[in-house]
Specification:
Helix content of chain B: 55-70%
Radius of gyration of chain A: 33 Å
Radius of gyration of chain B: 23 Å
Strand order of the largest sheet of chain A: 1-8-3-6
Shape of chain A: extended
Largest sheet of chain B: 2 strands, parallel
Oligomer: heterodimer
Distance between the termini of chain B: 10 Å
Number of strands of chain B: 2
Order of helices and strands of chain B: EHEHHHHHHHHHHH
Largest sheet of chain A: 4 strands, antiparallel
Helix content of chain A: 25-40%
Distance between the termini of chain A: 58 Å
Strand order of the largest sheet of chain B: 1-2
Chain lengths: 339, 286
């Protein structure tokens, strides 16, 4: 075949495009000393005031925490707390006094705090049936709830709501008094709206709940549908960490500084068996949430370290400068210079 | 002992092509194959291996730290759907795009200064030291990602799904911003893949939390209403990345590699020739 016709019709050269030839227009940033120092200084400038702001917000939250499970155990039962807590005839009432350190403005949130309680244990988290909670026709969907799925020996009687999460419902109660006057506790709207509307059905009623041999926690009112049982809904939102608090109610009046609040507690819930701790907490809230100094301190620390690093880099660039693109640093030139 | 076999396909037939790793049509293609594509390939592969170890390890280490606080049972910190989508959607596209497209030096510089090929021969993009440094950096970043929200929300009323969403978003942001810090050549495709992945992650987390059948229903909307969420999210990125950034800039200044100097010379217009000296190829290390 003729050479010229071959090259014209059989050219194997690929079609040119900027993408396939890797020639797309690009930005090639190089971080010069100026940029390095600027970025560390900017971080220090942004983080230090943010840290101070977080600490200031945390300082403004007023919090009262009272651990009561140890003091509310009568002395005669101190070696045998399980006997005390599991018996129906012992007196579980306990009276505690709290002092308000600073003025607390409404709404004041009442929490119960549990420590060393692993609501994030895998078997515990799985032991529930969301289908059953939503739909009365799915009452038999109790697969994951064993052993709290049916009344013992009777497969026709499913427990609604089934599972360990519901079975271990927290059932201590708190009543607050200022002097002799009872303080109103608002127990409405303590659960997420989304849970009340979509996860807990308004036509699902508790059935066979806590009727077995072993009582794990509180009982439920059979006449109220699950979407109105806000304590249950709050409890069933399993906490992420082993030390957590859950909303019990709200106080919609202010509490003045140095007031004495009396709390009458029904100490029903058994945390003695596994070394858990129970606390009641009253707290105000702002944009940072509850009282927590950690974020403020860590931001301040990071800002401080970045400032220190910025200063070190300034010293480095002043004491040991290297002109950009200087060919004397190339490895082959360094070898040549050494020879 | 050769590292790679290259065959010529031509008028004598294709037997060499069948037995070789690379094939070309003309002998003169050998120079750019080695100096340009060989160099780019080495640098991309080395970086990608280190980055992939980092990307997967940082995610798994967050799950590991959480296990210490669930009574050693395997409750996942991050919801199952997000765990699956992490490797598939949230972080895979930028990895692939940067691995294919990122160039550290232009073709022209590499052909003009063949000594730059010595970078690969001296194992400057992947070595045992670099690997262990990457693992140490990964450990630090996972500690920051896990423990900052942990201490911020200890003793609060946060639930498992919300904290999991915070960890998911933080890890994905972190891994993509880490990659963004290392990209040498930003094309529109790199921009689209990195920022696009971050946006896709946010959309996916929102979609996952809008399905009532899943346990984390509505968690993300409750989470974004907390001021502490935004503070954690932004603060963690900086705290996790600034050691890497600082050390990288320090080494770049005190012990610059040939590639770094060549890049600076390219950008700021210095000539890399020292006047009055001859340039010869470095002997390769045995």
């Amino acid at each position: 075949m003729d050479a010229s016709t071959r090259t014209r019709s059989n050219s194997n050269k690929p079609k040119y495009s900027r993408f396939t030839q890797q020639e797309l227009p690009a930005w090639k940033p190089i971080l010069t000393p100026k940029w390095v120092i600027t970025s560390f200084v900017i971080i220090a400038i942004l983080f230090t005031p943010t840290g101070l702001l977080c600490l200031w917000a945390s300082e403004h939250v007023v919090e009262i925490i009272d651990r009561y499970d140890d003091d509310c155990l009568p002395d005669s039962y101190s070696t045998n707390p399980d006997l005390y807590i599991q018996s129906r005839s012992t007196n579980k009432t306990c009276v505690r006094t709290l002092k308000v350190p600073r003025k607390m403005t409404a709404p004041i949130f009442i929490y119960y705090q549990l420590d060393n309680f692993y609501q994030n244990h895998r078997r515990y988290v799985k032991s529930r049936s969301d289908k059953q909670l939503r739909d009365p026709d799915e009452a038999d969907e109790t697969e994951d709830c064993k052993p709290q799925d049916h009344l013992s020996g009777n497969d026709d009687e499913p427990i609604v709501p089934c599972g360990l999460v519901a079975w271990s419902l927290f059932n201590d109660t708190y009543k607050f008094f200022k002097g002799n006057k009872a303080i109103d506790i608002d127990k409405k709207n303590i659960a997420w709206e989304s849970d009340k509307k979509y996860k807990f059905g308004s036509n699902v009623y508790p059935k066979n709940f806590q009727k077995g041999g072993l009582i794990g926690g509180g009982e439920l009112d059979d006449t109220k549908p699950l979407s109105e049982q806000e304590d249950l809904i709050v409890w069933m939102k399993t906490a992420a960490l082993p030390s957590f608090r859950k909303l019990y109610g709200k106080i919609n009046t202010n509490l003045e500084a140095n007031e004495t609040i009396t709390v009458v507690i029904q100490n029903n819930y058994n945390t003695y068996e596994f070394g858990g701790e129970k606390k009641v907490a009253l707290s105000t809230a702002n944009w940072i949430g509850g009282k927590n100094d950690f974020l403020g301190i860590s931001f301040l620390a990071t800002g401080g370290v970045c400032f220190f690093v910025a200063v070190s880099f300034i010293l480095l660039y002043v004491l040991k400068p290297r002109p950009l693109g200087d060919p004397t640093h190339l490895s082959w030139n360094r070898n040549q210079a050494a020879q | 002992m050769a590292d790679v076999g290259i065959g010529i396909s031509g008028q004598e037939g294709r037997q060499a092509v069948m037995a070789s790793d690379f094939a070309m049509g003309q002998f003169r293609f050998l120079v750019p194959l080695l100096l340009v594509h060989g160099h780019w390939n080495y640098q991309r592969m080395g970086y990608m291996i280190l980055y992939n170890f980092y990307r997967n390890a940082v995610f798994v280490l967050v799950l590991f730290w959480y296990v210490l606080f669930t009574g050693f049972t395997l409750t996942t910190a991050i919801t199952e759907w997000s765990s699956v989508l992490y490797s598939v959607l949230y972080t895979s596209v930028p990895t692939i795009v940067i691995a294919i497209l990122d160039k550290d030096l232009s073709r022209r510089s590499l052909l003009t200064y063949p000594q730059l090929y010595g970078d690969g021969q001296r194992q400057e993009s992947y070595s045992s030291t670099l690997f262990w440094l990457t693992i140490a950096d990964t450990l630090w970043q996972s500690i920051v990602v896990f423990y900052v929200p942990f201490f911020a929300y200890w003793k609060s009323d946060i639930d498992g799904s919300s904290l999991g969403d915070l960890w998911t978003l933080t890890v994905v942001f972190l891994v993509n911003i880490h990659l963004a810090m290392d990209v040498i050549r930003w094309t529109w495709i790199s921009d689209a893949s990195i920022w696009g992945s971050i946006i896709a992650t946010c959309i996916c987390v929102i979609i996952i939390d809008v399905i009532p059948m899943l346990p984390g229903y509505w968690a993300i909307f409750d989470l974004v209403s907390k001021g502490s969420f935004w503070i954690c999210l932004l603060g963690i990125q900086i705290a996790a990345l600034f050691p890497r950034f600082g050390i990288k800039m320090f080494i770049q200044h005190c012990k610059p590699s040939d590639i770094q100097i060549a890049r600076e010379a390219d950008k700021f217009g210095n000539s890399m020739e020292l006047t009055g000296q001859e340039i010869e190829m470095n002997p390769s290390r045995r």
